[in-house]
């Protein structure tokens, strides 16, 4: 790299020079800042500042942001201080470089410095002008920053203060931008971490000491496995590919100690008041106690704020490359230099051996998992000696990010005899720390003792003239991981100040805006408040006005705040005022935000459009927080792990937003990253009060909570407790079956002998025609033999798949023609006997999990073809695991008695009254297809029930096999076309898609000619013929109408469904190739008598089924809690099958589905 | 009988590709890791947020919930396949001009969903736009600018076809 022509630097904290700005010989300028662009457009604004001082085109300036090897340590990018503080030396360096250029030009052109002007990268006089690059041919100039360099007066600005297009968007909109998630290093492996069960906790002696054991051997043979890395509670796997790493991590058996219980975090006031804290006095003026005694009116109030998620859209990601005692980390960190120190500590390296290369990540708005994942990657890279990328999952980011802290504000205040705000006694509790790096905690590198931090004091002093004022913060250790989040503690503190002054105004009988104005001294603040009220159309008057028509009430609310950042007393950033207009449905508690008017005074706006976007962003994000965000915890830790259980604002939630930028170009620029969020919650709460007379003193303002407040009830938090408390019926049932079985078979088993062995034969290979083998192949597919005779993830057809029966577990056998462990030594008569009579070659009885009861109906010629096909396969040696059955069924001879009772070995006889098609279908369905094996209920002895019960539905592997005989609860009749679509394509849009054990069956059926599938469909449809006219069955479905109930339903479960499932399960205006094809309103699973299939589908998901465009559903088992799943199941049943009884046993069905 | 998964053949951004992938690989992983196409982003893995959107045979799809095998024989278009910085697709151009991104992580999904919306409804009203984008999440709160971009995109698309 050639040395830059001009470099401006300063001494860094370690005494080494840090560049601030350089200019290359071609005139290109690079600015260096330790702050990073968190998605707010800072890269553009910083370039704009440099370009302004140098009078060059902004396109000539690039910014290096946050790389530890080349940028100054300016602390974390927090508290809106980038423009106010971090940009100052950058601007000075640019001004100094400008002076250097002027000096060079003066010498070259022989002109006085004052006669020169610099414009668009050209310098000179009217007579002669040179491009800057032409001056940069001499020896490099390197100067230390002179902080006294004169910078341009704001009146001369022509770039700053005007719109400059964002420099990053063309790349971002075309996929060319490299986020940290996109960094790829040659030879890179993929890591996946396994976090402890104490999700989102970081203090207490159990941290780092809860991992009991882990079974590496169980996964070390899995595809792509490279390493398992364990240190303390840090656990991660490394694999060749990302998906492999995740699969291995999910399969890894791990045992953790049970963590100690968390306190009840749903009771924020109680919990925060009870826990230890250190009180720090921030202000004490006048005579608070005396004033309270004298006050004409006093009010004592508590305001509470819940834990919020930062909720980055991209879960954190990092790449680390450890080599020869150095580590390079590609990171999306908010604080590169602080991260460098943490990594140095984690790896026991000097800081100079750690390089952080900063890339943009998804907007973080505070401390999320961006640093944690760097520690993860560093540990995994060191363990493997290869570069490792770690991508956290959505669940990990949700559960483990240091949350925006909950906060409690206790306030007492009063009015004097004239209604003046005379006294205010404010205490705030803020349980948070600075989010120690998780890898340091998990590996035991730092002490997990609770540590408070001092960030609870932001905007703790209200912006009003109050003669008697006391303000204190209780610094508290975090209860769960909690750290700074946009607006830090100022947002909750302002919620209290601005609701309280509203309460006082109401007590004083005054207009809330006029009341504020009468207590404000700062003329800029007064201007801001007036402008907001004017532009928003504030209706003066005493609140609450209680404007309503019927149950619909409307109101207006006001709030204002100056965001103060940095250590107390801190520095003021921009100030903002909100006017919120709301409509409240008093029946449902629903609050609709109609319009938000926000004005902001930020001094000079560097890039006004950028400032406007920040105001919009702050408004949308803060209404999201105020209206619906609330992190839930159980006794173990955090539990909201996806976007359904922690919903954020959507396009449809958007109010009309009017942003007003106060014009103050003569004033210094103030930070705008957070200010417009701060008044939000109070303005909305005050508007709800104006509409309803009810004060919401605790967030969020969900319909249930507002409704409870309207009804004078305690405010609920989250989903209601499951109502499903029915006893575990299936257990009782299972016990009953076991008893009957023991009694029944014990008697009949006595005295029955084993059947004769049929001698081994040499493997009969290559003696059948190709046509016979092909017919056998089709029959093999029709019977879906491969499905049961292949273990999950195992070698095809060698068996070993466990079959759960009411009597224990039996394993499928090896079907390949291996002479020792498979069918290679079986003669055709041995095979035929097994197929027809359920007797193995050696004479022992087979369990009826093997459906010989159906196969017995096959013709001899078909059996021969099947035999021929099996013998044509490649032999594979593989033993079958022994069955573990409840006595006495484990005496296989007792099956002989069973056969005597339940097995009819008569071959299929065609029904002459029926068509050939019907008979072919019946033969396939009842014979080789053995549909009844799953789709008929079984009796106490495990035999298929016949007669009317034949094909009336059954249970298999925890999935419901719906009725095929028309007796099921499906909302629409099954027609021949429906059956054909289902068998051929794997999905009938009028009923459902093949899931669970049916999915692979459908995959196998693809080998059958369509004529056979049509025959099966024809036969099955005949069982469903109710004589009804079905001419409408071919009409296209009205998916919009069918989804309407899901759209219209109210309540937390409806919202959970829409946010969690709606993208695929609610029809919108845009057709999607990954949306569900079956409207849930028609789903057989939703209308079934038991919830099992719905629950299985939610937990395990569905594999890709359907032709020609297969669609899959992901399993939500690791993302949704049991409560969430139960709520979804109840919601679907209630909403889509209202005519059917509510499901019993939802909790038990979830428990069964959760079993490994 | 089930066979070892055959190499997967599909078309990506108009080029025929063949990939040898382990079973269970998502289309998203295949595009990002095997083909180096970083437009589609991992956001949730549940089809909830839309960051991973691509077009499959012209229909928008959430690549995080689509097994790569399900794209066999089909045509996939990613953000990169729509247009480049010097020759953007009209929808990309509209998003750039409306500055409809803060961090930009959701931008891929917003653009792809808009392309699909304008195919289905060339001149959508405000309610239809909001409904079409309801399952595309943005945490930065860029919604106002995105709505503006969609309206602008509808204009550009109409100009292009007229």
From TrEMBL, chain B:
CDD domains: fer2
Pfam families per record: Fer2, Fer2_2
Top-level lineage group: Bacteria
GO molecular function: 2 iron, 2 sulfur cluster binding; metal ion binding; oxidoreductase activity
Gene3D superfamilies in the record: 3.10.20.30, [2Fe-2S]-binding domain
Keywords, comma-separated and alphabetical: 2Fe-2S, Iron, Iron-sulfur, Metal-binding, Oxidoreductase
SUPFAM superfamilies noted in UniProt: 2Fe-2S ferredoxin-like, CO dehydrogenase ISP C-domain like
InterPro entries tied to this protein: 2Fe-2S-bd, 2Fe-2S-bd_dom_sf, 2Fe-2S_ferredoxin-like_sf, 2Fe-2S_ferredoxin-type, 2Fe2S_fd_BS, Beta-grasp_dom_sf, Diverse_Oxidoreductases
Domain 2Fe-2S ferredoxin-type: 6-82
Name of the protein in question: 2Fe-2S ferredoxin-type domain-containing protein
Organism of derivation: Marinibacterium profundimaris
């Amino acid at each position: 790299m050639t040395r830059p022509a001009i470099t401006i630097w300063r001494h860094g904290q370690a005494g080494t020079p840090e560049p601030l700005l350089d200019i290359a010989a071609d005139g290109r300028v690079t600015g260096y800042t330790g702050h990073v662009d968190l998605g707010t457009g800072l890269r553009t604004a910083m370039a704009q500042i440099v370009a302004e001082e140098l009078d060059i085109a902004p396109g000539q300036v690039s910014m290096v942001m946050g790389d530890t090897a080349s940028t100054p340590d300016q602390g974390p990018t927090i508290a809106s201080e980038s423009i106010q503080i971090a940009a100052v030396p950058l601007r000075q360096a640019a001004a100094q470089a400008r002076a250097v250029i002027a000096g060079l030009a003066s010498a070259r052109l022989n002109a006085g410095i004052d006669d020169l002007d610099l414009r668009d990268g050209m310098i000179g006089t009217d007579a002669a002008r040179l491009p800057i690059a032409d001056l940069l041919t001499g020896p490099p100039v390197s100067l230390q920053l002179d902080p006294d360099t004169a910078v341009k007066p704001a009146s001369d600005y022509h770039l700053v203060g005007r719109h400059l297009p964002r420099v990053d968007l063309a790349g971002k909109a075309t996929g060319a931008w490299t986020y940290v998630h996109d960094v790829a290093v040659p030879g890179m492996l993929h890591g996946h971490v396994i976090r402890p069960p104490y999700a989102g906790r970081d203090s207490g002696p159990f941290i780092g000491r809860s991992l009991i054991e882990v079974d590496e051997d169980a996964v070390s043979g899995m595809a792509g496995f490279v390493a398992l890395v364990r240190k303390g509670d840090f656990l991660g796997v490394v694999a060749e590919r990302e998906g492999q790493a995740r699969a291995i991590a999910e399969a890894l058996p791990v045992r953790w100690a049970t963590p100690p219980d968390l306190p009840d975090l749903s009771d924020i006031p109680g919990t925060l008041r009870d826990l230890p804290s250190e009180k720090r006095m921030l202000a004490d003026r006048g005579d608070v106690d005396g004033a309270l005694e004298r006050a004409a009116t006093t009010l004592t109030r508590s305001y509470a704020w819940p834990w919020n998620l930062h909720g980055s859209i991209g879960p954190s990601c990092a790449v680390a490359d450890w080599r020869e005692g150095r580590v390079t980390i590609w990171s999306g960190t908010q604080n590169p230099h602080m991260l460098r120190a943490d990594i140095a500590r984690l790896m026991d390296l000097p800081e100079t051996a750690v390089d952080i290369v900063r890339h943009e990540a998804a907007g973080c708005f505070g401390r999320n998992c961006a640093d944690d994942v760097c520690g993860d990657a560093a540990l995994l890279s060191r363990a493997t000696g290869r570069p490792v990328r770690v991508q956290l999952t959505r669940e990990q980011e949700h559960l483990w990010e240091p949350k925006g802290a909950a906060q409690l504000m206790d306030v007492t205040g009063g009015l004097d005899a004239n209604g003046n705000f005379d006294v205010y006694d404010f205490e705030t509790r803020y349980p948070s720390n600075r989010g120690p790096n998780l890898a340091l905690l998990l590996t035991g590198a730092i002490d997990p003792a609770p540590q408070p931090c001092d960030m609870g004091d932001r905007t703790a002093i209200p912006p009003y003239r109050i003669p008697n004022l006391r303000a204190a913060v209780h610094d508290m250790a975090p209860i769960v991981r909690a750290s700074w989040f946009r607006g830090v503690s100022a947002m909750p503190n302002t919620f209290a100040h601005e609701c309280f002054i509203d309460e006082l105004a109401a007590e004083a009988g005054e207009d809330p805006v006029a009341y504020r104005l009468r207590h404000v001294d700062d003329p800029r603040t007064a201007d801001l408040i007036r402008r907001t009220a004017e532009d928003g159309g504030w209706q003066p008057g005493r609140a609450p006005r209680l404007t309503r028509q019927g149950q619909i009430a409307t109101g207006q609310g006001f709030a204002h705040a100056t965001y103060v950042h940095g250590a107390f007393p801190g520095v003021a950033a921009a100030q903002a005022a909100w006017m919120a207009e709301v409509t409240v449905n008093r029946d449902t508690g629903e609050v609709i935000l109609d319009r938000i008017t926000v004005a902001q005074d930020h001094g000079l706006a560097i890039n006004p459009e950028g400032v406007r976007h920040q105001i919009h962003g702050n408004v949308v994000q803060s209404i999201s927080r105020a209206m619906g965000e609330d992190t839930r915890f159980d006794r173990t830790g955090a539990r909201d792990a996806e976007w359904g259980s922690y919903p954020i604002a959507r396009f449809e939630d958007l109010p009309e937003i009017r942003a007003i930028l106060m014009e103050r170009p003569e004033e210094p620029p103030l930070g705008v990253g957070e200010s417009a969020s701060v008044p939000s919650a109070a303005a909305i709460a005050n508007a709800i009060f104006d509409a309803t007379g009810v004060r919401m003193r605790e967030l969020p303002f969900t319909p249930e909570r507002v409704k409870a407040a309207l009804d004078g009830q305690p405010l609920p938090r989250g989903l209601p407790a499951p109502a499903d408390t029915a006893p575990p019926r299936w257990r009782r049932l299972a016990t009953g079956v076991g008893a009957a079985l023991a009694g029944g078979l014990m008697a009949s088993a006595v005295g029955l002998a084993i059947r004769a062995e049929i001698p081994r034969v040499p493997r009969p290979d290559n003696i059948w025609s190709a046509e016979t083998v092909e017919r056998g192949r089709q029959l093999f597919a029709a019977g879906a033999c491969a499905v049961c005779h292949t273990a999950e993830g195992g070698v095809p057809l060698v068996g070993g798949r466990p079959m759960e029966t009411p009597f224990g577990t039996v394993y499928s056998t090896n079907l390949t023609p291996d002479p020792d462990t498979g069918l290679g030594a079986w003669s055709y008569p041995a095979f035929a006997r097994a197929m027809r009579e359920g007797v193995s070659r050696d004479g022992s009885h087979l369990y009826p999990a093997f459906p010989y009861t159906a196969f017995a109906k096959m013709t001899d010629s078909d059996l021969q073809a099947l035999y021929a096909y099996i013998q044509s396969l490649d032999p594979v040696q593989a033993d079958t695991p022994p069955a573990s059955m409840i006595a006495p069924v484990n005496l296989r001879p007792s099956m002989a008695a069973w056969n005597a009772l339940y097995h009819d070995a008569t071959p299929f006889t065609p029904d002459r009254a029926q068509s050939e098609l019907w008979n072919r279908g019946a033969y396939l369905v009842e014979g080789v297809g053995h549909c009844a094996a799953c789709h008929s209920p079984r009796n106490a002895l495990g035999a298929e029930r016949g007669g009317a019960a034949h094909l009336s539905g059954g249970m298999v592997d925890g999935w419901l096999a719906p009725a095929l005989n028309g007796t099921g609860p499906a909302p629409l009749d099954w027609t021949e076309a429906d059956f054909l679509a289902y068998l051929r394509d794997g999905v009938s849009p009028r009923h459902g898609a093949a899931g669970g054990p049916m999915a692979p069956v459908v995959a196998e059926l693809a080998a059958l000619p369509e004529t056979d599938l049509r025959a099966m469909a024809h036969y099955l449809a005949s069982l469903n013929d109710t004589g009804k006219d079905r001419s409408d069955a071919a009409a296209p479905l009205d998916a919009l109408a069918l989804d309407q109930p899901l759209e219209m339903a109210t309540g937390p479960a409806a919202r959970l469904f829409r946010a969690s499932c709606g993208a695929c399960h609610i029809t919108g205006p845009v057709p999607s190739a990954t949306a569900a094809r079956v409207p849930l309103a028609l789903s057989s699973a939703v209308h079934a008598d038991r919830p099992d299939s719905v629950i299985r589908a939610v937990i395990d998901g569905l594999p890709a089924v359907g032709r020609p465009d297969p669609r899959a559903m992901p399993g939500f088992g690791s993302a949704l809690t049991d409560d969430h799943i139960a709520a979804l199941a109840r919601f679907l049943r209630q909403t889509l099958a209202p005519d059917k009884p509510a499901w019993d046993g939802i909790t038990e069905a979830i428990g069964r589905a959760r079993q490994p | 009988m089930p066979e070892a998964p055959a190499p997967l053949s599909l078309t990506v951004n108009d080029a025929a590709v063949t990939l040898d992938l382990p079973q269970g690989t998502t289309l998203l992983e295949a595009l990002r890791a095997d083909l180096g196409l970083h437009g589609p982003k991992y956001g949730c893995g549940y089809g909830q947020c839309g960051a991973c959107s691509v077009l499959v045979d012209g229909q928008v799809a959430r690549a995080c919930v689509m097994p790569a095998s399900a794209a066999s024989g089909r045509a996939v278009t990613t953000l990169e396949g729509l247009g480049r910085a010097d020759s953007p697709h009209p929808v990309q151009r509209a998003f750039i001009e409306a500055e409809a991104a803060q961090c930009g992580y959701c931008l891929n999904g917003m653009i792809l969903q808009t392309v699909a919306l304008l195919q289905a409804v060339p001149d959508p009203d405000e309610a239809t736009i909001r409904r079409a984008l309801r399952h595309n999440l943005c945490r930065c709160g860029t919604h106002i600018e995105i709505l503006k971009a969609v309206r602008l995109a509808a204009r550009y698309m109409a100009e292009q076809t007229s």
